[in-house]
Amino acid sequence: MKFQTNEILNGKYTTKKTTKNVFLVPFTLLLIMFPLILMRNTNESSPNISSVKNMNNKTETKGCDIFDGNWIPYSEGPYYNNETCKWMIDEQNCMKFGRSDEEYLHWRWKPNECELPLFNATQFLNIVRGKKMAFVGDSVGRNQLQSLLCLLSQVADPEDVSHKYTSNVIYFRRYFYADYNFTLGNLWSPYFVKSVDADPNGHSYNSIMKLYVDEVDEAWSSQVEDFDIVIISAGHWFFRPLLFYEKGQLVGCNKCGMKNVTDLAHYFGYKMALRTAFRTLNNLKNFKGVTFVRTFSPSHFENGDWNKGGNCVRKKPFSKEEMKLDGYFLQTYLTQVNEFKVAQEIASNKGLKFLMLNTTEIMLLRPDGHPNNYGHPKDTNRTFYNDCVHWCLPGPVDTWNEFFLYMLNIESNSSYGSKLESVL
After folding, report:
1. The Trichome birefringence-like N-terminal domain covers which part of the protein (predicted)?
2. CA distances from residue 99 to 28, 95, 96, 372, 374 in whole angstroms, order as listed
3. Domain map of the chain by residue range?
């Protein structure tokens, strides 16, 4: 199966337009597909993959890096399915809408030097007993939250208490596990920073957004102090046309096509937004929690653009020989890692903790795990596009929460001691 000249796996994307205001758009697949078409074409050179390995944040037990390994065949079935978990949404419910092949459900991540334990819902809930946890970012982060809800449903289902905290229950949700006094939340903010429409005629697919890269989005920053554990992630929304503002002044753009405005590419906006988000977490007076940063999640379109028949029909993972982390994806990943490393050092000096869920290269190998056209009913008058961005539930996204539990368990028993005793 040959990749096209605009193939996402090699970091090349066509330039199109995007969708509605991030707080007003309907909760549909179309919402999250539009940013993909705006990803930047580039021939820029990339660092060698070995430079990434040297930057990896390792979660170690006896010297084991759990993010260094391979996908191996696994005969057992998934933790849950669409009948046993009520928390998955239709857009990722591949079984419900007819995906019949099941090979994608029979692979597990195997670190080279240790074992990654199976997810233990009881253990997870006991670790987070009495705590509050929030996913901050875009719909791929919400994908992980819904995976976690399904994994925990083996033991307990929460009460949806979102309406007690907000009127915007699509994008800001809270779930309460009464038996564990544990709150799980979602704070929607695909840019992390303040964003508004630049077009005076209102928002459309052709409009440009203003991104105030040094001003945090208060929609999440005003709430995050309530949480003990934060998982922060985003990326795809930065590839649409954007105007970048610092100190209230226009400093450049991404794909704006305006005269006398410097095209700084999406990397600038992503870097600065991450910097602002991480600085906010490190500087909030009452935030004493642990921050997990999940790295960028690759997409896998083949045979055309997302809106021109592009799809993801593979039924098994790539090997590391078939697919390398390079080009566009490597550059985006390094942008995130560089900002993480700076924030991690600052946090350490303040007695805070930044940890990385380093999943980019791992998920690059899983083109088989996306909904494709199995995230919606077949008979409908609505226009749907193949989803090669999000992940089927159940599916490889569940591995993110296996990593997450592994890291929580280590940190709760580490020499970080008194700090984590109060948080975890």
Report:
1. 63-115
2. 19, 5, 8, 10, 6
3. 29-423
